[in-house]
Design a protein that fits this description.
about 475 residues; mainly alpha; three-stranded antiparallel sheet; elongated
Length: about 475
């Protein structure tokens, strides 16, 4: 340029933008030029106003991000399957910053999404205020207050506000108390299982031998072994409910290496305890048929069975252990379920959880939903919970398949159980009276097979297209 125009002076200005962003800046600069600004004045104007231009954009193609090293290939495969559109902007240093991951192009271009995100990102400019004083007063006999004083030039601005600090402290105290008593419930559950195992091995009861796959249900036609057996086996085998605990448990480990022992240990321990209880229940009542009849006569109440078995075989100590280990277990399960649900919602909508009112904003609607569920007959809730639990587990298995495929690992270890559980969940829909209740079982199983094949083909095609 200097060789072509030796008499001209060239001003180099970093727009801190890109693409149509600096195009808009130059278009406005051209207008200013027509209004009479000199080249030097234009350069100064651009540097002064470049941070007032927001660069927000999205992309539906993730391959460029993989080539640029911004995301991994595994993340690109998952993003392609979920139709993720990254929403990005340029920060005040001219760097490309990912702001959000929004599903589908249709949603990403909604004005309210962009306005909400843009409004959450401040524009940095000249510092106008500096913090001069920040004091917090709190105690068990006074109202918590905060005093803030800021300075602007020679002016001082000071404000004080009262806070519900003691209430927040109470919630933290409750959390700490729960953290102390949870191990007690766990120890009680394990001790009760070991005591019952001792009764089985050294007591007079005889464990029934399961030498056939005969259906021991009172109405075997309505609940065939396939798929009912695999729907009801949730403890320690395949469980969507346990998968939902991942956000909570992952926050409790100190290192990722602990995840294998924590997650596997919890599932295997629960499966062993469940097997001990199944054997004790059949031995106590004299077989699977007798157990089914006793439960039916008492409203199919598992709590009734636990209470009578514990008190009869272990006496007063058994009753106490039953209270701590089994009666308290649903309470702790409910507590962890609510906590995990809150964390899942917060992760999905990217709501930070350090602020107390943001926790309550998510928790309160969950509490309302939980209360409404308690107004429904528990046996109905449990029937649908079993299928929902395994369906969620199946979805998690398919997610594992996608991840293993993207990471170029042996994905068949998850593919086979994913296909099997897809067939189980689909066949339950066609066979169970809770859904279609088809009497023509061969046709029901055939439809389940067709549904499984459709899901399998869809996943494989998506993997091949995005892989």
């Amino acid at each position: 340029m200097q060789e072509r125009f030796p008499a001209r002076k060239v001003y180099i200005v970093d727009s801190l933008g890109a693409s149509s962003g600096y195009g808009l800046l130059m278009d406005t600069a051209a207008t200013k030029r027509d209004e009479g600004l000199t080249a030097e004045e234009l350069a100064a104007w651009i540097e002064e106003n470049r941070l007032y231009l927001h660069h927000w954009f999205f992309s539906t193609d993730l391959s460029s991000y993989v080539r640029g090293g911004r995301i991994s290939k595994a993340a690109a495969v998952f993003g392609g399957l979920l139709e993720i559109c990254p929403l990005l902007n340029m920060d005040n240093g001219g760097h490309l910053i990912p702001r959000s991951k929004i599903r589908t192009k249709k949603k990403v271009i909604k004005d309210r999404d962009l306005e909400g995100l843009i409004g959450a990102v401040p524009v940095s400019g000249e510092e106008r205020y500096t913090l001069d004083r920040f004091v917090i007063n709190s105690g068990n006999t006074i109202t918590s207050t905060a005093v803030i004083r800021v300075k602007k030039g020679d002016e001082m601005f000071e404000r004080a506000a009262a806070s519900d600090g003691p209430i927040n402290a109470s919630f933290h105290a409750i959390d700490k108390i729960i953290g102390k008593i949870y191990p007690i419930f766990g120890v009680a559950l394990i001790l009760m299982a070991l005591a019952l195992l001792g009764v089985l091995l050294f007591g007079p009861s005889r464990i029934p031998e399961l030498t056939t796959l005969a259906n021991a249900q009172l109405d075997p036609h309505s609940v065939p072994i396939v798929p009912t057996l695999f729907i009801t086996i949730a403890c320690g085998a395949i469980s969507g409910f346990h998968a939902t605990q991942s956000p909570l448990m992952a926050r409790c480990v100190r290192n990722e290496r602990e995840c294998r022992s924590v997650f596997f240990g919890a599932m295997i321990s629960e499966s062993i305890i469940a097997l001990i209880w199944a054997a004790v229940a059949m031995a106590f009542f004299g077989g699977a048929h007798a157990l089914a009849e006793a439960l039916a006569a008492n409203g199919n109440s598992a709590a009734w069975a636990v209470n009578i078995i514990s008190n009869t075989t272990l006496g007063i100590a058994g009753g106490i252990l039953a209270l701590l280990g089994v009666v308290a277990a649903p309470i702790t399960s409910g507590d962890t379920a609510f906590r995990s649900a809150r964390l899942i919602v917060a992760d999905i909508f990217r709501i930070e959880q350090r602020t107390q009112w943001k926790r309550f904003a998510i928790a309160l609607p969950l509490f309302v939903a939980g209360y409404l569920i308690t107004r429904v007959d528990f046996t109905v809730v449990w029937r649908y919970f079993a299928w929902t639990n395994q369906t969620l587990a199946t979805i998690v298995l398919w997610a594992v398949v996608v991840w293993l495929f993207a990471a170029k690992r042996n994905y068949f270890v998850a593919l086979l159980p994913a296909v099997f559980m897809t067939f189980i969940c689909a066949s339950f829909v066609f066979v169970s009276g809770q859904f279609f209740g088809m009497e023509n079982r061969p046709a029901a199983y055939a439809l389940a097979g067709d549904a499984t094949a459709v899901v399998l083909c869809f996943i494989l095609l998506k993997l091949r297209r995005n892989g």
